[in-house]
Amino acid sequence: MSSPSKPPMRDALVEAAFRLFLERGYEQTTVEDIVTLAGVGRRSFFRYFPSKEGVVFPDHERRLAEVTGFLAAGGEGEDPVARVCEAVRLVLRLYTDNPVFSVQRYRLTKEVPGLRAYELSVVWRYERTFAGHLRERLADRPDGALRADVIAAAVVAAHNNVLRSWLRSGGEGDAGAAADRALAYVREAFGDGADRGDERDEDVVVVVSRRGAPMWRVVREIESALGPGERLPDRP
Amino acid sequence: MSSPSKPPMRDALVEAAFRLFLERGYEQTTVEDIVTLAGVGRRSFFRYFPSKEGVVFPDHERRLAEVTGFLAAGGEGEDPVARVCEAVRLVLRLYTDNPVFSVQRYRLTKEVPGLRAYELSVVWRYERTFAGHLRERLADRPDGALRADVIAAAVVAAHNNVLRSWLRSGGEGDAGAAADRALAYVREAFGDGADRGDERDEDVVVVVSRRGAPMWRVVREIESALGPGERLPDRP
């Protein structure tokens, strides 16, 4: 019979851990200290967290599962790069939904090399999840796996750039809007992951010309891009 | 007085370490075991390597310093993305110059989570070195830091994609040629890191048109892209 105001045991452990990390430092805090302050047994800790590092990033396992589910639920016709960009916004929200906690953890992570390494491995797992989705969806493209890996890394880097700025600022400003802009840059670079050069032939004509080029050359290039037999009409 | 054929102490330590890792497993081997087999004192080990993980990646510290120097030596007028692509080829060479060792280490790293984490932190340091160079060179671009981070991540991902394929194949094939191709994909996506959209205004006209568009619309778009007063010439 727990009262409604009492946080669940998992939250109590996270709260106790962070209170101790901030007071004594991360290295000086043991799992024993955490369970004592939270008033639970040692086994309870390991039911929720695989290690002391785990309590620092308590929600990533669940979010990783959600992200995997979100990606799998995407329709076949959907732009896979857009889907991955939406998925990374879910990861960002894990931070922005709780600015105070996120900024505390950021400061802790900067000071403790072991936590930095742990965080890199978390980021790596998101990146591989995104890459896995893209590899599947780009499987029939030339160099599909390469494209998938590169795009996944670019998406994660854009996310991290925005996240770090937001954390450094102490959690101020609209990280979501910044992320949309950063991800637009990535999408502009890669499109939907297809080689746009390949698709161009099907329905779009692109002509690039230096401003200084003589007009007859512009016309000739447009006609040659349009294909055999096509000519620009004479001025009516 | 060491004979010319006797490897230096550092190499002897790496050799002893790998012999033991392969025979007994990584976790079952202690630094004590390594120095005993190599016939040197414990202090010699720590003169060369910060930790047991360190002996698994013995050349990255030096290569990281070389990469940093190589980037700094680049001329001001040089394409910074091309420079970073050349730098990552130096990292690849660290693996391809010694296929047997690289493939052994790859198999070890796959089996030991701690080594995987260590490797991620090595990769991270290369990525931050590349990003630092690009941030400097793109500082006057809009969103220069974002571009730098995203391009650095894309370059590293292209490198890793090629490296992993090569390692999985047991060190067969021309990884250098594969890397050139993978990096060409990244450079195609990002150019020299500048927003090509910004530059376009200065000297190039781009017209994109659906193939189905009526010809008069194509003409009108070209004229409006060329700017006020410019008209396509009548057919001569």
Structure notes:
Two copies of one chain form a homodimer. Helix content of chain A is 70%, strand content 3%. Chain A has helices at residues 9-24, 31-38, 42-48, 52-56, 60-72, 80-96, 99-111, 113-137, 144-168, 175-190, 196-203, 215-226, and one strand at 204-210. Residues 196-203 of chain A have low confidence and may be disordered. Chains A and B meet through helix 8, helix 9, helix 10, strand 1 and helix 12 of A and helix 8, helix 9, helix 10, strand 1 and helix 12 of B. Strand 1 (204-210) of chain A pairs antiparallel with strand 1 (204-210) of chain B.
β-strand amount of chain A? under 5%
Number of strands of chain A: 1
Order of helices and strands of chain A: HHHHHHHHHHHEH
- The CATH superfamily of the largest domain in chain A is known as Tetracycline Repressor, domain 2
Biggest sheet of chain A: strands, sense, closure? none
Largest interface between protein chains, with number of residues from each side: A-B, 50 and 50 residues
Q: What is the mean predicted local confidence, pLDDT of chain A?
A: 86
CATH topology of the largest domain in chain A: Tetracycline Repressor, domain 2
User: What's the multimeric state?
Assistant: homodimer
N- to C-terminal distance of chain A: 86 Å
Number of helices of chain A: 12
Q: Any low-confidence stretches of chain A, pLDDT <50, length ≥5? A: 196-203
**CATH top level assignment of the largest domain in chain A:** Mainly Alpha
How many domains of chain A? The number is 3
- Rg of chain A over CA atoms, rounded to whole Å, is 25 Å
Assign the CATH architecture of the largest domain in chain A. Orthogonal Bundle
Tell me, briefly, the overall form of chain A: elongated
The computed structural class of chain A is mainly alpha
Q: How much helical structure, as a percent, in the residues of chain A?
A: 55-70%
Keywords (chains A, B): DNA-binding
Protein name (chains A, B): TetR family transcriptional regulator
DNA-binding region (chains A, B): 30-49
Domain HTH tetR-type (chains A, B): 7-67
